[in-house]
Amino acid sequence: MNHFPAHALNKRLILAWMFGIIPGYFALGFLDRYYTSFIGFGLAAFLFHIPAALFVYYLFGRLRRDFQTRPFETGIAIALFAALSLFGWSLLDGANQFPRLFEARTFLIQENRLLPFAVGVILSFAASAWMMTAFGKRIRESRLAQFLDANLGGLLLGLIFFSIYFLIAYIINQPVFNSDDIFFDADSRLWRWRFATENYRDYYWRPVHPFALIVIRPLVGLISILFKGDTLVAAFALVAGTGALCVFLVWHFMKRAVGSSTYALLIASMLGASSAHLVFGSLIETYIFLAAVALIFIVLLLENKPLHALVITGLVAFGITISNFGQTVIAHLMVRRSIRQLIVYGLIVAALVVPLTLLNNFVYPDSQPYFFDPSTYEGEGHNSFPPTLQRANFLGRVMFLHGMVAPQPLIYEEEIPFLKVWMFRAAIKKEPMRLARYETWFDTSLAYAWLGLLLLGGMMFLKNLRRDDNRFSLTFILTILFNFALHMQYGKDVFLYSVNWTYAVLLFLGLAWRDFAGKRWFQILLLIFIALLLANNLQLILTMLSASALRIK
Questions:
Q1: Is residue 478 part of a domain?
Q2: Does residue 502 belong to any structural domain of this protein?
Q3: Is the pTM for the entire model greater than 0.70?
Q4: DSSP β-bridge partners for residue 422
Q5: Do residues 209 and 325 touch, judged by C-beta distance below 8 A?
Q6: Which of 131, 243, 365, 516 is deepest in the core (most CB within 10 A)?
Q7: pLDDT at 5
Q8: What is the pLDDT of residues 239-265, one digit of tens each?
Q9: Which residues contact 150 (CB under 8 A, 6 or more apart)?
Q10: Alpha helices of 32-70 — where are they, by DSSP H?
Q11: How confident is the model at residue 553 (pLDDT cuts 50, 70, 90)?
Q12: DSSP-derived pairing of the beta strands 424-425 and 434-435
């Protein structure tokens, strides 16, 4: 944030203020249902537009500086954000074709709110100019500005993916979807109730989420303040924000591990654009929270954080879903490589999980059974299946192909009043096992391209096996194997669990490809792949909408 004389400041700030109107218009268009008075909506516009204008002001300066010092890398970043913006616009346009599910005017300011919006925005310019004049130096030297400067790429990427995920979340989590198992066997109706309504009891009565409610429901309540107590929309925002956090954490890890911000942007974008994260970064369920917790644990290990930080993260993983604690054990063992520390970590977590479970059921009485009651696990049998070679084959395809490049999903009709959209269907009720397939030249070619990138990563890992510190790479391999072994017998549609391993696949590849991280040809290759991936995976979301719209009256 360089200092500019007054006339330069005004020119740049005017442009920043004008560009800031665009995101402000759509954000406040969504919020105008909550802030209905003239003063309230004008104040919301005023308060939103000041940081927006200052941020865009800073962004213009940063772009100019980066173009002077790193023109190629800056061009790659701009092209990437342009592709993501086009994806968001295409998603908005595509969703608008299904008026039973979505109307674009939801994000447009109503006519009777335009005047207070204009007043608030105009006043924000004067306030922004005054703040830059009076506090410019203090702002530039603040910790927030330093954090922003060091993490700009990851924050921008997270912000744009939050916008994408929130749009999808707003559509596919509507109360009209009053059945579970519609999308990929997800219990989205159950978790929508448990997170966002007073109906927090698990009607399936399962013990495997022992204290998820005391972790997630308070966050929903806190976010709902912004939406005047609308906990459903707060749940949308929390899920989308958690998906965006996963993208940021992957960017942060790759930047720290490899040292290239541009390369980190590309790897993190691949995660955000993957079919797994487009779906579960938007659908109300528990899985995106587990992916975020796993990534937080990995980053804590990378930064050599103290034991208490690891314990807190491990407790959250256990509380949301018991089995995911295993991933933290793998990561702790492989990175720290200390049996003593691992035992201490395990004992502390074991000592705290029972009190936290009791606390959960005290705050939310009769919400679910206790995980330490063996009799309550009998109901999990309907999700268990015998391991077979065919299941191993199909599971491997879901893990290494479908979680990144979406095929044409399975669509079929059963007992619920919606068409089911799944990727994988276990052998249920004597029906054969089924798997989604690539059916067009485009998705087939893209799947082969991804397979080629996977093979390249595997060869590079083996080539550098003795040279590199492979603690994290081995962690990701064991995490993938752990999930493979678990889901060889568990899960009707294993795509439901895909965010539990997609981050591990991508981080493994990001480390394996590190010799190419600074190569321009490889960065262009990844950029092209991401653009094509966005185009392909957009069709998955639109297929979900078109199949659902057929059954909505």
A1: no
A2: no
A3: yes
A4: 410
A5: no
A6: 243
A7: 42
A8: 999 999 999 999 999 999 999 999 999
A9: none
A10: 38-69
A11: low
A12: antiparallel
